[in-house]
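lol forgot to send this yesterday, sorry. struct tokens for the thing we talked abt
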């Protein structure tokens, strides 16, 4: 995930071994969901671009939830 901290766009790298549908969730520092998006994942390595300029400055957690696993990372919105 880069850049971190982010002001406008955040790029999320992911790799999958099969076509899949996942949920991308953004949680604020208190654990409240502030954004949710359905993402179609294709086999291979990809970079997903997310605009975060409408989010308030602060720390957030991103969760990419697929049928096989949950990947979570934190970032700072400037």
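and heres what i got for the seq, position by position
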């Amino acid at each position: 995930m880069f850049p971190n901290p982010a002001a406008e766009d955040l790029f999320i790298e992911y790799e999958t071994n099969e076509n899949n549908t996942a949920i991308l969730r953004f949680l604020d520092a208190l654990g409240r969901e502030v954004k949710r998006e359905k993402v179609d994942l294709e086999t291979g390595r990809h970079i997903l671009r997310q605009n975060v300029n409408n989010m308030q400055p602060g720390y957030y957690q991103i969760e990419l939830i697929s049928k096989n696993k949950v990947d979570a990372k934190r970032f700072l919105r400037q």
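The longest strand covers residues 20-28. anyway ping me if u want another try
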